[in-house]
């Protein structure tokens, strides 16, 4: 092997950035603990389910040395924002504001360190100046997709020859970038902690037309949460496809079946005299109007025996003994069974798009790709349509997805307390009127990597 990229060694590395609070190793440990009858923290990475990032990572080959043709393939996994393998999750500031050592930028730095260690291992096994090409495939979900985009810009600005004995004409190429629903969600002093805007300061989300051979993003068409603003890759990269589902329907992480129990509206409140019947209050009247609106959304599967859409109410005495009052509250509540197989459709789609571009993923197993028969026709349609960028399903297919597979991620369930207070910050999953914000690619700024 000489010093030319035509004859030198080639190392291909897949790098997988998981989403906030997603950590496949902690998830495996959590499952083992639960099998022993032990408890894991609710909502933590130890309770989570493997995402599509974790599943794709399992499909990427891992070799420890170069083969007889001078090629090697390996993969790196970057755990989700706010997680560290084998340790407690970092709720603040990482999971809350996307900051800190396990925040978005911290995970980009972690990936860079992992890649440097990987290069060190493989280069040390070679004669000096014989590694001629480094090829990268990069995947990311949610804030992990934001970290992946920043990492790609870091890599494209890195001179690896400063640190490694590489071939004279060494090149680093980002071959394929596969993103699931980029959500940067970083809050800081500049935006007073608002994670629903596009003020991310030093985070570089811009993916220019020369940054990679191909970039694709599968976006959650039905995501409505204020704190989950989408960062697009269009117009520079046209395969920026909105697909049926919410954030984790696309990127994965939901169990294959769950009982969804959500408040669809915020609690409506008013003060009335103690003798006023609940159904005669303004709070109840507003909730009745809300209930009628939600009934028209057709979210309940007629075959689901657990389905429930109703007004829930509370009341308690307040005021003084001389001037007693009754505080009345009412909100719309929904309960239903929701299945998690839609994410497997998008796993299959991303897997296929990557393989089309030469990414060396092994085939998905039957278990990994398995979906209910009722989803098969939808999967076939979406797999074909995603390559054209035009997604169109029949009314019956949309109804099936809406009633059984698309989760209601936007809701008024309280993150703190009972949800009957006045602080919006307690409602992390609250919807944004008109749907979540969608931001085009940011214009590159001076000082960005």
What does this structure look like?
- By secondary structure, the protein is of the alpha/beta class.
- It folds into two domains: 9-253 and 340-400, Rossmann fold (3-Layer(aba) Sandwich), CATH 3.40.50; 260-338, no CATH class.
- Helix content is 28%, strand content 21%.
- The protein has eleven helices and twelve strands.
- Strand 10 and strand 11 (324-339) form a beta hairpin.
- Helix 4 crosses helix 5 and helix 8 (342-356) packs parallel to helix 10 (373-385).
- It comes from Pseudomonas saxonica.
User: How many individual helices?
Assistant: 11
What's the rounded overall pLDDT mean? 95
Helices and strands, in N-to-C order? EHHEHHEHEEEEHEEHEEHHHHE
What is the CATH level 1 assignment of the largest domain? Alpha Beta
Whole-number tally of structural domains: 2
Approximate helicity band? 25-40%
Instruction: Say how many strands there are.
Output: 12
Instruction: Give the class from helix and strand content and strand pairing.
Output: alpha/beta
Organism: Pseudomonas saxonica
Protein name: DUF2235 domain-containing protein
List the helices and strands and how they pair.
Blueprint: E1 9-17, H1 24-35, H2 52-59, E2 71-78, H3 91-97, H4 104-124, E3 131-141, H5 143-156, E4 171-180, E5 214-220, E6 230-231, E7 240-243, H6 247-251, E8 257-263, E9 268-272, H7 282-295, E10 308-319, E11 324-339, H8 342-356, H9 366-369, H10 373-385, H11 395-405, E12 438-439
Helix pairs in contact: 4-5, 8-10
């Amino acid at each position: 092997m000489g010093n030319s990229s035509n004859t030198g060694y080639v190392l291909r590395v897949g790098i997988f950035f998981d989403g906030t609070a997603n950590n496949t190793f902690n998830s495996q440990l959590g499952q083992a603990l639960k099998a022993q009858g032990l408890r894991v923290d609710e909502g933590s990475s130890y309770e989570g389910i493997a995402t599509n990032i974790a599943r794709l990572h399992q499909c990427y080959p891992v070799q420890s040395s170069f083969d007889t043709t001078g090629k090697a393939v390996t993969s790196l996994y970057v755990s989700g924002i706010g997680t560290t393998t084998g340790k407690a999750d970092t709720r603040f500031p990482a999971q809350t504001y996307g900051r800190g050592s396990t925040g978005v930028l911290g995970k980009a730095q972690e990936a860079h360190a992992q890649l440097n260690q990987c290069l060190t291992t493989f280069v040390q096994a070679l004669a000096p100046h014989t590694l001629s090409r480094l090829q990268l495939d990069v995947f990311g979900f949610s804030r992990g997709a934001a970290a992946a985009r920043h990492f790609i810009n870091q890599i494209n600005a890195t001179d690896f020859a400063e640190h490694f004995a590489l071939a004279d004409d060494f090149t680093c190429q980002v071959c394929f970038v596969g993103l699931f629903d980029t959500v940067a969600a970083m809050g800081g002093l500049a935006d007073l902690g608002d994670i629903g805007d596009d003020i991310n300061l030093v985070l570089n989300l811009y993916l220019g037309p020369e940054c990679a051979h191909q970039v694709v993003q599968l976006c959650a068409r039905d995501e409505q949460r204020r704190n989950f603003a989408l960062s697009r890759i269009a117009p520079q990269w046209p395969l920026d496809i909105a697909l049926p589902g919410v954030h984790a329907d696309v990127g994965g992480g939901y169990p294959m079946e769950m009982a969804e129990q959500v408040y669809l509206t915020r609690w409506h409140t008013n003060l009335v005299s103690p003798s006023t019947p609940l159904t005669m209050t303004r709070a109840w009247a507003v909730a009745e109007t809300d209930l009628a609106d939600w009934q028209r959304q057709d979210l309940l599967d007629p075959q689901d025996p657990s389905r429930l859409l109703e007004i829930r109410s509370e009341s308690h005495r307040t005021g003084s003994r001389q001037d007693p009052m009754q505080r009345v509250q009412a909100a719309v509540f929904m309960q239903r069974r929701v299945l998690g197989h839609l994410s497997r459709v998008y796993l299959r789609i991303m897997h296929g798009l990557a393989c089309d571009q030469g990414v060396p993923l092994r085939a998905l197993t039957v278990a990994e790709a398995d979906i209910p028969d009722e989803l098969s026709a939808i999967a076939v349609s979406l797999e074909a349509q995603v390559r054209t960028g035009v997604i169109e399903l029949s009314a019956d297919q949309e109804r099936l997805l809406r009633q059984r597979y698309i989760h209601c991620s936007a809701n008024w369930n309280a993150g703190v307390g009972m949800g009957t207070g006045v602080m919006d910050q307690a409602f992390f999953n609250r919807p944004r009127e008109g749907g979540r914000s969608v931001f085009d690619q940011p214009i590159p700024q001076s000082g960005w990597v």
